[in-house]
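Researcher: Here's the sequence for the chain we discussed earlier.
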Amino acid sequence: MVEMKKVHGIEYGHTSLTVSVPESAIVFDGIPKEQVARELPDPAEAVRKALENPLGMDRIADLVHKGSKVAVGFHTHQGHGAVSAPVVLEELHKAGVEDEDIFWMPGLGCYPKMGRRDILGAGHDDPWAAHAGHDGAAPMLAPEIVDRFWPQGTVYPRGIRNPDCSDPEQLKFLGYSRLGDYVEYNKAYVESDLMIFLGGCFAPLGTYGGYGGSSGVTVGLGSAKAMGSTHTYSVINDPRSTQCSPRDNLYRDHKHAIQDKIEEATGKQIFNVDGFGNINSKWTIFRAGHYREIQEPMWRAVDKERIVNLPSQVDVVVAGCGPMTTYDWASNPLAVLASQVASHPLKDYVGKPFLRKGGVFIIAATCGGAISEARQTDAEVIRLFNREGQDAANLVDYEDEYYNRPDAIFKYRHGRCFHPTHPFWLIYNAQWALDNYTVICAGAQSPEAARSVGMVPAKDLDSAWAKATEVLGEREPLALVMPNRTRRGGVVFKAA
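Model: Thanks. This is the structure I predict for it:
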């Protein structure tokens, strides 16, 4: 008889569930308090010191002067613009740069355009805006910066403006990187006298370079085609891209190659300002300068706080999903699979996968099948995925149509929608999980929706556990259970 125990707090929409697992199960409910990085007493002062001592570059004051045109890009997820932007503006003013020669640009990539309230963190009624604005949390830029620059809106050079990844008039082709990436970036940004990017080093980000931070411009300010060259099936599904070590990650290699090409083509270095926020969203370290010089100090900070040791690989992972994923409400099956399974936490490991090949991932998610209007082409691409035998590699031939669909491009440019190619990249990201594991969606309100993206539906967590033991042929598989996962922040697992 297998001894069982109950674990509470498995997220499920706006509520939580309880799962019964063997006594041997590892229950992970957050990193130890002593491992949490210490909060900076004065983050703004730490930014100021970083700007005074940039690594691998001259100080801002030595790079610009009165009349210089300056472009400041900023990260929209876990970015530090609320803290750093006023300090950066101080430095620009000291160098003689005037407001009319500065513009600010969110690194949106293929995400929907943002309004003033989104940047201020106020949120809206639609799911993307609520997520982008952190549902009332800290703004992406300091309110005084938004108030000072927003009235000019999209007027260049001054103001806050959204990049457009599909407008040829706003883009400049710079050539190909040493890895063959198509390097086409926001024209106003790359033609400025000084390019600054306010990034955020954070974990986990296994699929997209193993930790965020530095060279964020390579995703946030490129054309859809440029982003497509790095988000392609072959890059995302390469074994080196499906793990979280930034020091040996193929996707990050592409980011480096692209940033190097931007600097080579423009003859100017990009001035990065990176910060790392701890598990409690408190800033702990800032560095400024060239991306190659500032990355390692940031990575060491993430390693120290976020890497969690496991005694061995596990057979089953049990985790939950709240009402929202990174991309949409949890009713969207593709959003659940791509962000709550394939990216986080399945690829959040260093060394070897913490879930052994052939294992089972149980995700508790509402998965009712509804897709928000912002994700305008998800349903179409899911249908293509099924038409092609649920093999993402076969979707590559359809990309060109979605890069050039006039109706969908219009909605992206003017209707607060994701770019039409975005779901391709989510499915590419998820294919590795489907190829190596059985993914069971516990509590799926629409079994058909779960099946449409390759997940196995289950009525509840107990049913999901029974399916898992059947798949594995074991009565007592070793499980890792992660209650309150999305509420406590991301970690990186290292299995012995």
